[in-house]
Specification:
This protein is an alpha/beta fold. The chain has 42 helices and 22 strands. The strands form 6 sheets. It has a 7-stranded mixed beta sheet with strand order 7-8-6-1-4-5-11, sandwiched between helices. It starts with 13 loop residues before the first helix and ends in an 8-residue tail after the last helix. InterPro entries: RNaseH-like_sf, RNaseH_domain, RNaseH_sf, TNP-like_GBD, TNP-like_RNaseH_N. It comes from Amphibalanus amphitrite. This is Transposable element P transposase.
């Protein structure tokens, strides 16, 4: 190709350049590919610019499994990517030199890199890292510390040292955080007095400087003081808060705070010296180190003295960020003295000794390749490869379109001659392999070939020997093989039809499109494809479907026993060996040589990706289960929620624990109710005599569950029933039946609270408030029982909120009131905090800017008690108001949100401004409750909010907007802090609603019930937790599992002998567990009670080892219903040949 018509210089074509760069590969845990760039550029790099520093840091990656096509290997799961970068400290180049996954930098890796760079002529002067635990461990291993040696000997040059630096911006952020959280004190003695600088001073300063139009510091805002989560990671907020401008503002606003101004000024001056980015800057101290050497050295000495004498909070020792500052200061001074001996050196840009270059690389890898901000390990390698070759990430697409003209300069280019050395994100990689070309010019096969491109390429010669076919069990001849039962027939046919459609031009005999065949010609097994198709799906031929099924046998054999261990100890059956697709393809080509290799290649890739997706889904489920178990262990009241796959399974599982509720009372006989309705699951318990005592039977009464009204239809005698101990509570818990005593307490408390919520002149309220007559007085009457339950729940003396007697009129107009309960797809809970925050900001930007804004939030301890509401109001006139309100001693989080919103709306009700009103809340439940309309409000607080809204809406537009919670929105975080502070206010005068009081009683009664369970085999397994419902449609099997774990098994020989259904010649019936007729029929060692069958029977030792990995099973493992069912089936299978069939 000729690009210069005058000179006629021939240049390589785009296709040639694309072919050259296609051989570039990036191997993890290897430096060879990266160091080639430096070696090529060594000849053209000035000697001074070769002085370099080593930077390394970790970057989080997506933990999903992925497939690397270039290396043909399954990668993952990994959490972190360790990246090492080399950059010049006197020039403008930088270069990544190492990438590894879940690997810490060791002294060996560091020394190997130093020797390689020195050998190529790049003197290594510094090593930069943050103060993570792994990096601090590396410092200790090398003998580096802030109060000792801050360098190590250069292994390649005895006359030079390698100096270690902490990331100074990271240290500054930590300094800011500790000042705001704990305060900064001068002196390390016992009596240090008041803090010199703390959050109160900064908050007051921010409030003062923002209260007037002409301010002394326009940049300082409340965000600088109340930064949380993501905002705490922003360096510019810390630098602006601890800046010279703030230091000068303090004496102007406050008297007697000169010491605080001096401290902040010392911090700002020292940071300027440690973060210089050019030779000459706007401030003398920000110039390169050496331009104003005397002043710069004095600033560093003052900062060093301050860090040695200052303490944060009650700590008596130096914090890690102080040690990092001291390490960097001393290394900077020593490095400057060492560099003065280098020819041509004039100044030192200290900003080149932090991790900004690495952070810039991470940002480019995440944000410049589309919307996926969290790449997988394979995507990280591909993106880093594109950055190295100089292609434009924005145009990196798989396309064959060639550009009509080349842009003058690409995203990244080499350091050009005559360019002054300068620090910043504009530093470039050392070699421009593909600089100036768009990524669309790169052949798509060099990045990520598609399925068609992969299969269209000529496959290599098979490298799989015939012995492998015999080893995995594939017959060498054409004998018919069995199909795998793991894949459904329909799914296999659909996959076979997919391959047949994609390779129809290669082999038309693989299948026929449904539009080309009559309905009567469709095979019976492919009717589903025909019904699903609109004419373009392909029905596989019988021969191809048979081959496809045989392929499945080979695939399963190759991956059997391979992969990584899952949470339950089994392997995930997905090989991580290199060449995973090639091995399968070559094996199939040897076995079926008549089939086209492109067909087999497509099948191999398709089948591997199907398995990869399945394994990723399974491992994700394991991860969620582990998180759920960890949360249950951390919880004081663990109540695990069953997770069932489908709606049908969920309904079936709940049928076992619902349908009837059984309460214990004295009046009724069991037979009177039991014969009317066949109660499940109590019927099998009674049949097997698990409820043995006659008193228990007489105390049982059936109470119907009203599904439509979602309430219990209770006779009055239930509320007056006496309390009785019931050792069978674990049995009822296994059956999914709630505790009778906790249910009675809940019902009594609910009745009492509803009565107390009535008007004072209501007869029922007078009855509830009065003491019962002596002849009716008992410890379990509904008034006494309800009052004692409220006292136990901590609600003694709490006022019940009056019932809403007069609802708002249904025809009330609410036209100027709008409810927005979403901010777009990015606001979903599954999205990251950054994504949710950006979606919220974009949505809020469309609302009126000149408006009164309300940001409200509620808080409740554990979501049940000590509620508080807080709100921040930004009026249209520029005034900022804060509201705090107590929400009650017993209060839900939603109720606290409503209290906060009501208090804020009442605060702005009389505001004369006609500007619109925007109220933001992070409680979708509260806004959904209000959005139902004025007439739909059934609570007092909901009606009060609507009355206020209607008053405000008469003169201004009102919008209630939902925002994501705790995603870094400064106003929302400020309202949350106010709500938590309001929760500490006195709560005695705030009433609670009947629902909150009833829930508190139910939680307390349920906890007491679980804590008082008798010691039994059931309690050994579950402790004080309830078992999960068993999914599936086999109710008999579920009952059997529940009985085994409850310690009363209906199929036990000991139990059958005790009730006379398993007599022997010597003994017809007895309760003795040592009777020969009651012994285990398999081992004859002891009675076959559930503990023996599940934990101790020696015949089942192999089954326990296979299922759990140990012959000694921890009782807590029996929470797994599948394990109990498997052990039961194994025991019955061993017992049946001995003549003991099912009872």
């Amino acid at each position: 190709m000729s690009t210069n018509a005058q000179l006629r210089w021939p240049l390589p074509s785009i296709r040639s350049i694309s072919s050259w760069v296609s051989g570039l590969r990036i191997e993890p845990s290897s430096m060879a590919q990266f160091l080639q760039f430096l070696q090529v550029a060594a000849a053209e790099t000035a000697p001074l610019a070769k002085n370099c520093a080593i930077l390394f840091d970790e970057m989080s990656v997506d933990t999903r499994l992925c497939y690397d096509q270039q290396r043909d290997v399954i990668v993952g799961p990994h959490k972190q990517a360790q990246v090492i970068m080399v950059r010049s400290i006197c020039g403008a180049w930088k270069q990544p030199v190492y990438v590894a996954f879940d690997t810490a930098i060791s002294p060996e890796i560091l020394m190997q890199l130093i020797l390689s760079l020195e050998e190529m002529g790049y003197p290594v002067r510094a090593v930069v890292s943050d103060m993570g635990s792994k990096n601090v461990g590396l410092w200790r291993a090398l003998g580096v510390s802030y109060d000792g040696e801050t360098s190590i000997a250069n292994p390649a040059a005895a006359d030079r040292r390698v100096w270690f630096f902490a990331d100074v911006p990271h240290c500054l952020k930590n300094l800011r955080n500790h000042i705001l959280d704990d305060g900064l004190y001068l002196g390390c003695g016992g009596d240090r007095g008041d803090p010199v600088v703390d959050s109160d001073l900064m908050e007051e300063l921010a409030r003062e400087v923002s209260a007037t139009e002409f301010t002394v510091n326009r940049k300082l805002t409340a965000l600088h003081v109340h930064a949380a989560k993501g905002d705490r990671q922003r360096v510019y907020l810390a630098a602006q808060l601890l800046s010279e401008t703030v230091a000068k503002s303090i004496p102007e606003v406050f008297e007697g705070q000169e010491k605080a101004a001096e401290v902040i000024n010392i911090i700002d001056s020292g940071f300027d010296v440690l973060n210089s980015r050019r030779r000459y800057a706007d401030k003398p101290l920000r110039c390169g180190l050496g331009v104003h050497l005397t002043e710069q050295l004095a600033a560093l000495r003052k900062l060093e003295e301050l860090l040695l004498t200052a303490r944060c909070g009650s700590r008596k020792t130096l914090l890690p960020f102080q040690q990092g500052f001291l390490l960097s200061i001393r290394s900077t001074l020593a490095l400057y003295k060492e560099m003065e001996k280098v020819d041509g050196f004039q100044f030192l840009q200290t900003a080149l000794l932090n991790q900004d270059a690495l952070e810039s690389l991470f940002s480019s890898v995440r944000t410049k390749f589309g919307s996926n901000l969290n790449p997988t390990p394979t995507e990280l390698l591909y993106r880093l490869r594109l950055l190295l070759i100089g292609a434009s990430p924005a145009a990196a697409r798989q396309t064959s379109v060639r550009p009509a003209s080349l842009p003058e300069e690409g995203l990244l280019s080499a350091a050009r001659a005559g360019r002054p050395p300068q620090c910043g994100t504009e530093d470039e990689f050392v070699v421009p392999i593909f600089s100036g070309y768009d990524a669309t010019t790169i052949s798509s096969t060099t990045i990520a070939p598609s399925v068609d491109q992969l299969s269209a390429a000529t496959p290599p010669e098979p490298a799989v020997p015939v012995e492998l076919l015999e080893e995995i069990g594939v017959p060498p001849n054409g004998a018919e093989t069995e199909t795998s039962q793991a894949i459904s027939e329909y799914g296999m046919q659909y996959a076979a039809g997919f391959v047949a459609a994609k390779r129809a031009k290669v082999d038309p005999t693989l299948g026929t499109r449904t539009c080309d065949m009559a309905e009567e010609d469709v095979p019976s097994g492919a009717r589903w494809i025909y019904l699903l198709s609109r004419g373009h799906l392909t029905v596989p031929s019988e021969q191809w479907l048979e081959n496809f099924k045989e392929f499945e046998v080979v695939f399963c054999a190759i991956h059997r026993g391979q992969g990584m261990a899952r949470r339950n100890g089994t392997l995930d059956q997905l090989s991580r060996a290199p060449g995973v697709v090639k091995t399968l393809s070559d094996t199939l080509c040897l076995r079926w040589p008549r089939l086209d290799e492109r067909v087999i290649s497509l099948y191999a890739r398709l089948r591997t990706f199907i398995r990869l997706r399945h394994v990723a889904k399974v491992r994700r489920g394991d991860h969620l289960a582990a998180l759920a178990e960890a949360a249950a262990r951390r919880s004081e009241k663990p109540t695990p929620t069953p997770v069932v796959g489908t709606r049908r399974q969920f309904v079936k599982a709940r049928q076992f624990a619902r349908g009837a509720v059984y309460l214990f009372t004295t009046p009724a006989e069991l037979s009177e109710s039991f014969n009317v309705v066949a109660p499940q699951p109590l019927k099998p318990l009674l049949m097997h005599n698990l409820l043995r005592q006659p008193d228990w039977r007489r105390s049982l009464v059936l109470v119907n569950w009203n599904e439509a009204a979602h309430q219990l239809e209770l006779p009055l005698s239930v509320l007056g029933a006496r309390e009785a101990e019931f050792p069978g509570d674990p049995l009822l818990a296994e059956a999914g039946i709630p505790s009778a005593w906790s249910t009675r307490k809940t019902l009594a408390a609910r009745t009492l609270c509803r009565a107390l919520a009535l008007p004072e002149d209501d007869p029922l309220r007078r009855v509830a408030e009065a003491d019962p007559p002596t002849r009716l007085r008992s410890t379990t009457g509904w008034r006494q029982l309800g009052r004692s339950a409220l006292i136990e729940a901590g609600a003694e003396g709490v006022t019940v909120e009056p019932r809403l007697e007069v609802p708002l009129l249904p025809w009330t107009t609410c036209r100027p009131i709008a409810f927005n309960l979403d901010v777009g797809p990015g606001g979903r809970r599954a999205s990251s905090n950054e994504t949710r925050r950006e979606a919220a900001r974009q949505h809020l930007a469309a609302l009126p800017a000149q408006a009164t804004w309300i940001w409200s939030d509620g808080s409740a301890d554990a979501g049940v008690r000590r509620g508080g509401g807080g709100a921040v109001i930004f009026t249209a006139s520029g005034e900022t108001l804060e509201v705090e309100v107590a929400a009650g001693g017993l209060c839900s989080s939603t109720r606290a949100e409503l209290f906060a919103l009501r208090a804020a709306l009442e605060r702005v009700r009389d505001e004369p401004s006609p500007a619109p009103l925007v109220a933001c809340s992070d409680s979708r439940a509260a806004l959904s409750l209000l959005s139902a309309g004025a007439a739909a409000q059934t609570t007092t607080i909901g009606a009060a909010i609507w009355r206020t809204l209607l008053d405000i809406a008469e003169r201004r537009q009102v919008t209630l907007q939902w925002v994501p919670a705790h995603c870094g929105l400064a106003e929302n975080e400020r309202a949350d802090a106010l709500a938590k502070q309001a929760a500490t206010l006195p709560q005695g005068a705030v009433p609670s609603d009947a629902r909150s009081l009833t829930r508190a009683v139910h939680r307390t009664a349920t906890r007491q019930w679980r804590e008082n369970w008798p010691d039994s085999f059931f309690k050994t397994i579950f402790g004080s937790t309830l078992p999960l419902p068993i999914p599936g449609e086999d109710r008999e099997a579920a009952i059997s599992v529940h009985q085994l774990r409850a310690g009363h098994w209906g199929r036990s020989l000991q139990y059958l002998h005790r009730i006379g259904r398993h007599p022997s010649v010597e003994c017809l019936q007895c309760p003795d567990k040592r009777c020969p007729a009651a012994l285990c029929a398999v081992c004859r060692e002891e009675a076959d009670v559930p503990e023996h069958v599940l934990l101790r029977c020696p015949v089942l030792a192999g089954a326990r080892l296979r299922l759990t990995g140990s012959i000694y099973v921890d009782p807590s493992r029996l929470r797994d219903a599948d394990l109990v069912a498997a052990l039961e089936a194994g025991y019955l299978r061993h017992r049946e040949p001995l003549g003991y069939g099912p009872p």
